[in-house]
Amino acid sequence: MPDFSRTPDGKIICTLIPGDGVGPECIAATQAIIQAAGVKLEFETRHAGESVFKQGIPSGVPQDTIDSIKKTRLVLKGPLGTPVGFGEKSANVTLRKLFETYANIRPVRELPGVKTPYSGRGIDLVVVRENVEDLYAGIEHMQTPGVAQCLKIISAKGCEKIVRTAFEFARSEGRKSVACATKSNIMKMTEGLLKRTFERIAPEYPDIQSWHVIIDNCAHQLVKKPEQFDVIVTTNMNGDIISDLTSALVGGLGFAPSANLGNDVAIFEAVHGSAPKYAGKDCINPTAVLLSGVAMLRYIGQFEAANAVEHAVLVTLEDCARKGVGTGDVVGYEKPNTLSTTAYTEKIIGNLGKRSEKWRVRDAKPIRMPQISAEPTFVKATSQRTVGADIFVEANLLPGDLGPKLEALLEGTALKLKMISNRGTKVYPLGGAITDCIDQYRCRCVLRQGGGKGESGTLADADLLAAMTRISSAPGLRWMHVEKLMEYSGEPGFTKAQGED
Amino acid sequence: MPDFSRTPDGKIICTLIPGDGVGPECIAATQAIIQAAGVKLEFETRHAGESVFKQGIPSGVPQDTIDSIKKTRLVLKGPLGTPVGFGEKSANVTLRKLFETYANIRPVRELPGVKTPYSGRGIDLVVVRENVEDLYAGIEHMQTPGVAQCLKIISAKGCEKIVRTAFEFARSEGRKSVACATKSNIMKMTEGLLKRTFERIAPEYPDIQSWHVIIDNCAHQLVKKPEQFDVIVTTNMNGDIISDLTSALVGGLGFAPSANLGNDVAIFEAVHGSAPKYAGKDCINPTAVLLSGVAMLRYIGQFEAANAVEHAVLVTLEDCARKGVGTGDVVGYEKPNTLSTTAYTEKIIGNLGKRSEKWRVRDAKPIRMPQISAEPTFVKATSQRTVGADIFVEANLLPGDLGPKLEALLEGTALKLKMISNRGTKVYPLGGAITDCIDQYRCRCVLRQGGGKGESGTLADADLLAAMTRISSAPGLRWMHVEKLMEYSGEPGFTKAQGED
Description:
Strand content of chain A: 15-25%
Distance between the termini of chain A: 53 Å
Oligomer: homodimer
Shape of chain A: elongated
Largest interface: A-B, 133 and 133 residues
């Protein structure tokens, strides 16, 4: 367990960010219930989100909030909004990135009285989603005026951390299985890296069953037979989609807590947004934030208090179901049987100390976050050489015209044109495909016989730059993107195009 | 409607690919039913998949299959397998790419007697998924031995085609709304391109309601309230996940047909795989292939026959439900009430001519595929200039060491270092983020004051290559990837890093 910041009388200090919209009401309810449960916790209130954007801070996160989090390393927060016209990035995402909270934990479980098409099937699963890399890095470049590109970046270090976190989390909650969901059949290198890491690490956890599932089938199975899943580990973008899918299985965002865990900082927050239309009306369901608070209590080792609050929630929901009352998201807003946020909160406080007979609470142990070297280089190759380059060019030409033009340009350089592809499908040499080309072509250039330096033939940067200079000189052609083709430890570090030999 | 290839006596010719595993049985059932419905169609049987891979053809698609499809432009196929150790790419994907079938149409509808948690809610929706670009292009490069990258490529032309197809499809089936599902809030350029294209084109279809939904919320809503959706248009990878999600809503892959439509060729196939464990046992549910065949009949204008077959399926399923019998996927395999493929097929044939009273069949009109210029350049900028470059380097250094090193290297060149990011988060100049760096750094270099050529300042290729030469010269640094930073029509063609000013 991390060494938390404490007050002189020993209370753990937690940075509290009330957030926007319904956030302050959810946070107030959570704070009241946690305090009523007798938890000794000191809250340090800080701000982020809308009000901060409007002060002109483009990140939405001011320095004193950053300073507080750096000190406490523990955050309980409400949802943050991004006002239209302010800020390019969500402050929620900024906080996760600023503090390298690389694991997003999204548990969903069936709850008493929250009726869904799946009620009675005992859904109780957790999505462990990588939280800082993948397409979410948002690295985008317009390759031409009409062609956009985003980089999906997946690192071995990131995969190691998220896979170990998933298994450690499973262990901490006594869960039986971890499924790894990827699209490794299409993206062998990026998504495949998570799968291979998973398969390498799984044997270290013989007490936990492990299996791989293709992400689209995972979505299918989650709808068809969700009770087969326990823990699911996946990449950031896939995890975004399937974790939102899973929260719908058990009754929606009013009941979906989350934790963002890193080695230094942990941020606990609901999955839902700031829902401005419900703000200030004392009508929001605070359960998602409250259950995020319960996860936080477990994280700081307050297991008894966590269990007490969770039992109080279960007992309250059982009682609500019996009486046919509930928060607006469950029974409808502004109905005779609708409970206000305040009334619901008081009910939970009144039920502290009671235990549900029918619904169980997991006995948890502290999670052991993986400790991994902070050195940037995580995988070392025994050898590496450059065998060519993919040069991406803009041209309003058809492949049959572009190919010979490039071949002529590269004559006398260290590189020769192997093939051209358009959106991954080989279009030159002509192969019979019907391809409606866009004006970004990937030109795969490889070392000519004897073109490389050294024994095994490696492309020198000077030779590559010389070839690029030739391409630069050609009218009607423009290169905008280059990728070296690498061989690491004798293995190719690039995939073939559709149709490439 | 395309001008199909016909026999001397006027019958449309269709290339028939029986496929692997359960494919031939599904295709035989479909063929029998279509013929019994009196459809005049000439099947030309060709092969692809396992047997072809094993002959040593690495694509899994032989030339005579390609030739047949180029002639007929119409394909009905069973699922194709990729035997372990043969072929890098699935032959199913190869066929879609070879013939630029850019639109994948995946309808799902509630069917009589196929019980799911959603039964009775009248689900009847279609996912229109872009089929040839996005991450599915599979363009991957290992940036360092431990960092993988895949390119997500989205073109304006591709977006225009898929959006128009979605609206045209909605019109052809008399559907009321099209939702566009993207992750434009995170990927403003790539996913945002689909959203912007959708919003531009939607007003041309005033008879159809249009709305945008964030893809993760779309997955949530599909589970929570699927009946709110009619047509959903989305990018390839997102569509892969949500279309598999939707097929589970109505009873699984045994009932999930699909069409792959292009301007030249259309391929009709089930969504399911070759399921080798059920092959040859006369136990597979052929409905998915059959309904793909029904979609094909509509595509070629045989609306009456299509409706007759669809009604026969509905009547058969109603009858099965009444009698408590069904195919193995519905009632369980090898039970007393299990229907064999043959028995089920005969039942459908026996029900040709009957019409379901309770379940409706849509009256369809021919779909008008969008006609778009084949010129590669689809969007033309009024001006474009290069304002810098993102140079991606491998270094086992921390940002505080890498930054000054690069600044020194770039001294005297046209470029200066603006910032460095790691997986999209700014790490230099140091900003207080806690970032566990990987060994791929993105170094954003911009034109120095007066460093550009021409009036408005554009980076010359020679100057960029000179700066790259400097980086090449530094020990402990290796560049492996370069992206030019472009301005098109005065607008930046690149996004900012998390934390970048």
